[in-house]
Task: structure prediction
Amino acid sequence: MTTTPDLDASRDALADVVAIPVTPFGDDDTLDLTAHRALLRRLLDAGVRTLTPNGNTGEYYALSPDERRAVTELTIEEAAGRASVLVGIGLDLPTAVAAAAHAREAGAGMVMVHQPVHPYVSQAGWIDYHRTIAEAVPELGVVPYIRNPQLSGASLATLGELCPNVIGAKYAVPDAARFAAFSRDAGLERFVWVAGLAELYAPSYFAGGATGFTSGLVNVAPAVSLGMLEALRAGDYAAAMKVWEQIRPFEELRAARQSADNVTVVKEALAALGLCRRDIRPPSRALPEERRAEVAAMVAGWSI
Result:
């Protein structure tokens, strides 16, 4: 189906917990659509209102084109009337444009553009890449995923001037001071700022102007992530930091060794809860047997 999304509604949806669902696999390494549907419904029933299929926690780069389309369609089907959908797209430009068009036709309101995968990225080329995608789907909200610390706020400002449908930015450079400067150089009020490094960075990035944050942890404990959002919206940083202290060991385990086990730890927690298999695709790898109890113990006391 083809729809004309409301960009104002999309902006509101970014100022929230932007959940990045996992992609469950069966014992034959194919998509486990039954488990995936159940996990999505669990998020929706808990009150999550923004979903990002084909994000990094969804193992975007390990999925085939057909699998990415299937994940997109399943998420949009389940979210209908209950949540906004921000579809992850990227890779080479023809692939990204085709994925954006598919997201539009399937009924999504937004696309998140993964960081360009190329050893040589110029500021002007970054603008050209995102402009080509945004102009191909003017009806959709477009959200660049920014992980490059060399990118200037001025480049995003230029992109925003060229493309009105670039409505937000997922900022994932681990530097709160740089984020505060970048967002102001780009236009603090022009874009919706999403803290792209999840709960561990959300309090400091909210202090700098973010109004939403991404989350992989939300797959495991939706109430924990939503509780942090509630505290941050209220300006209650003491309450937010209590949540931060609670989830810190889990998030630090995910971030260790350049985030080698980022998705692995989330899937291990879900497996401990009996919600999906722990299977994960290379170049990630499942936790060794002796580490699994550690993850189960971390989440045992959370509000699941």
The longest strand covers residues 84-89. The chain has twelve helices and eight strands.
